[in-house]
Design a protein that fits this description.
The chain is mainly α. The chain is 70% helix and 0% strand. Helix 4 packs antiparallel against helix 5.
Amino acid sequence: TYIHVTVIPTQLLLCLQGTGRPGPPMYRSLRSFVADARHNWLLAVPAGLYAINNYLKFAMQLYFRPTTTKMLSNLKIFTIAILMRTVMNRRFNVIQYEALFLLVAGALRQRALCPQNTPW
């Protein structure tokens, strides 16, 4: 059903004349296509992770209430901040720490206001 999402950009890539780079137009030869594919092969990793993330978002909406989905989305931002602090040794300023605190406090408050008799 979404085949046109890939067909139209592919046609544009094959027919586009003014690419902004020197040399022959992009993908007019198999050699230039293979050279660019080898150069950009690592981009498949984040693209695959993004596709998995989007699938999990839609699957999660089938089973969770909207408030729980939003809370988990907000806590994902908090988890990324923790990973940036521990793995990448990134330093945050006071305003960023306050924003993280408010984000987590708001998510926990929203969860506390939910009815307790439902599992999610």
